UniProtKB/TrEMBL annotation, chain A:
Organism (species): Sphaerisporangium melleum
Keyword annotations of the record: Membrane, Transmembrane, Transmembrane helix
Name the record gives this protein: Uncharacterized protein
Biased composition (Low complexity): 64-76
Keyword Transmembrane helix: yes
From TrEMBL, chain B:
Residue ranges of domain RNA polymerase sigma factor 70 region 4 type in the record: 111-163
Listed CDD domains: Sigma70_r4
Biological-process GO terms, alphabetical: DNA-templated transcription initiation
Record family assignment: Belongs to the sigma-70 factor family. ECF subfamily.
Annotated spans, Disordered: 150-173
Residues in RNA polymerase sigma-70 region domain copies: 18-80
Lineage: Bacteria, Bacillati, Actinomycetota, Actinomycetes, Streptosporangiales
InterPro entries: RNA_pol_sigma-70-like, RNA_pol_sigma-70_dom, RNA_pol_sigma70_r2, RNA_pol_sigma70_r4_t2, RNA_pol_sigma_r2, RNA_pol_sigma_r3/r4-like, WH-like_DNA-bd_sf
Keyword terms, alphabetized: DNA-binding, Sigma factor, Transcription, Transcription regulation
Taxonomic source organism: Sphaerisporangium melleum
Protein name as it appears in the record: RNA polymerase sigma24 factor
Gene Ontology terms, MF aspect: DNA binding; sigma factor activity
Domain of life: Bacteria
Length: 413, 173
């Protein structure tokens, strides 16, 4: 029968296609890029390189020898969508599905000063399967610009970690641009007493160990400058001996490898905007990327800068900068305390039909929590666009920050 | 055991779907003739992520993925065919179509049959792969291809006829 032969032949051919072990990371990259553009086109939804919250499962029946291994980052859970008001408490939603085992930690995300929440959860194995019992480390983070939050617990495709003492779960380095100060975190077994990140130059950057009450494992964190080139985390026991080295998958060093279009744009304010041929628009200050927007090649800019949201902006490294619709000659941001920052807008040199603006914009306090108003003017001083950005106070701000293990005194070695 | 099986109550998360269906989508794209099946599958998952919140049914994600893979592969193959035509018109040497498979892995006895599948018109090839590899129903194939079930029946029937003739010619040679 030709049908039977066909089935067999197709199955044989199908088996010949192998999958890239880094496929998940590539899908994450595409999702992040797509989200930037999509979010830019939707009012009240963040335009930011949202890191997907990842984590790792932990086999409770651990009894293996000390080993130094490379862990594999596991896929994240799905992102929650914002509610109609644009505010979605991802932590609350995730906890409802994955209730904590033991205490929930609150630590500070150094990139925006807002809390990150970490907790263990314990999905039950299927009855009668003899499958090992896992717990998972869940995380909830938030984005200051528009007040979105994201939370996830891992789903493992390769959950067998027997023999390990510590696991990498996530990092703010997975966000773009990953400048400034970063934090990485994960879980550790009770025998781990200390953690440090190892920088590119071999320097050790000390971390912290948290032991949430009632939790089945400890949580480790390391805070470090983005430029340190951290690639390895080292875990030591109470005797000071290294019991585990973890090398997480590296985030790509660059958001794009596509050639840059010429010339660079230099709006007033000290920033450089560089458009790459794949549509990635990078904002640089002193050669360092401080912001990025992805424009889909071939897609009209009108899709990004809509009438409802005629500009796309961010605050970073003491600057306010972004894109505005064609015809904009000046962009202004008015803070709630009445102060105004004004930026001259210039047409994009790549003839894509938008304008660029940038201005120094230091602001004391939390501009995102307070809210602000952006107004666009044309060359005649007539108002041609306005965005009222509602206050986005931090999630989980009333939760006291957790205290690290007092037995551990982080110190460079 | 995979974690997906542990947390399989309720609507599957994006990561669940990735873990369960990524390899199949790569294979589907390959069987449909994509020169880079991984690229197609990754793009399909990225698009699914955009769509996840708007899918009404919990089990709508996989049919959506299949449809995207079919669509992207169709566009990609069309693009490659046009590129080959342009090269040929410009007098440049034709580029051999990359089948995406490691030929040595495919048993000799399948070669003629698979070569005949590769020569089928696009729609007929899609119908055959969806029917005889994924074992989908006519309704499901129609959804993936964006055609009616009646059209699926026609494509499948014609494809089988063409395969039969092609194999007959091979054996006559």
């Amino acid at each position: 029968m030709i049908e039977d032969d066909l089935r067999e032949a197709l199955r044989a051919r199908a088996r010949s296609y192998e999958t890239d072990p880094h496929a998940w990371a590539e899908v994450q990259r595409r999702v992040t890029r797509a989200r930037r553009v999509r979010w830019a086109a939707l009012a009240a939804v963040p335009l930011c390189a949202a890191a997907l919250v990842a984590g790792v499962p932990l086999v409770l029946s651990h009894s293996g020898p000390d080993t130094a291994t490379t862990t594999r980052r596991t896929p994240p859970a799905s992102l929650p969508l914002p509610d109609p008001s644009g505010r979605w408490d991802a932590y609350a939603a995730q906890v409802a599905k994955n209730p904590p085992v033991g205490g929930t930690l609150a630590i500070v995300d150094p990139s925006n000063g807002r809390p990150i929440r970490l907790w263990f959860t314990d999905p039950s194995p299927r009855q009668g399967t003899g499958e090992p019992r896992y717990i998972k480390l869940c995380a909830a983070t938030q984005y200051a610009l528009h007040g979105a939050s994201v939370a996830g617990c891992p789903v493992a495709v390769d959950p067998v970690h027997d023999g390990n003492h510590a696991w990498y779960a996530g990092s703010t380095s997975e966000e773009w641009p990953n400048t400034g100060t970063l934090i990485s975190y994960g879980m550790a077994l009770p025998g781990v007493a200390d953690v440090a990140a190892v920088g590119r130059d071999g320097s050790r950057l000390p971390g912290l160990i948290y032991r949430p009450k009632g939790a089945p494992a400890a949580v480790w964190t390391v805070t470090y400058p983005a430029g340190a080139g951290v690639g390895v985390f080292e875990f030591t026991g109470s005797d000071g001996r290294v019991v585990q080295r973890v090398t997480p998958d590296r985030a790509p060093d660059s958001l794009t490898s596509a050639p840059a279009e010429r010339p660079d744009a230099k709006p007033a304010g000290g920033l450089v905007a560089r458009l790459h041929e794949d549509g990635t628009l990078l904002w640089l200050h002193d050669g360092e990327v401080i912001g990025a927007t992805v424009l889909t090649p071939g897609r009209p800019i009108e899709d990004l800068l809509t009438g409802e949201r005629p500009a796309d902006w961010r605050f970073a490294q003491g600057f306010w900068f972004g894109l505005a619709k064609a015809g904009t000659a000046k962009a202004e941001v008015r803070y709630r305390d009445g102060r105004v920052v004004s930026a001259r807008a210039v047409p994009d040199p790549w003839k894509r039909g938008f304008t660029l603006f940038a201005a120094p914009a230091e602001h004391e306090g939390d501009v995102f929590a307070e809210g602000y108003t952006i107004t666009l003017y044309n060359a005649h001083g007539r108002r041609i666009g306005r965005v009222e950005q509602a206050p986005n106070p931090p999630f989980w701000a009333d939760i006291p920050l957790s205290t690290p293990d007092p037995a551990v005194r982080p110190s460079p070695r | 055991m995979t974690e997906a099986s542990v947390v399989s109550t309720g609507r599957p998360s994006f990561a669940d779907l990735f873990a369960a269906h990524y390899a199949a989508m790569v294979r589907l794209a390959g069987l449909l003739g994509a020169d880079d099946p991984e690229d197609i599958a990754q793009e399909a998952f990225a698009r699914l992520h955009q769509k996840m919140g708007r899918l009404r049914e919990a089990d709508a994600a996989v049919p959506y993925l299949r449809a995207i893979v079919c669509n992207l592969t169709r566009n990609r193959v069309r693009h490659l065919r046009l590129a080959r035509l342009r090269r040929s018109e410009a007098g440049e040497p034709a580029v051999t179509q990359h089948s995406g498979e490691q030929a040595f892995l495919v048993a000799e006895r399948h070669r003629d049959l698979l070569a005949a599948v590769d020569r089928l018109p696009r729609r007929q090839r899609e119908a055959l792969v969806l029917r005889y590899w994924l074992e989908l129903s006519e309704r499901e194939i129609a959804d993936a291809m964006g055609v009616t079930p009646g059209s699926v029946k026609t494509h499948t029937s014609r494809a089988l006829g063409a395969l039969g003739r092609s194999l007959q010619e091979s054996s006559d040679d």
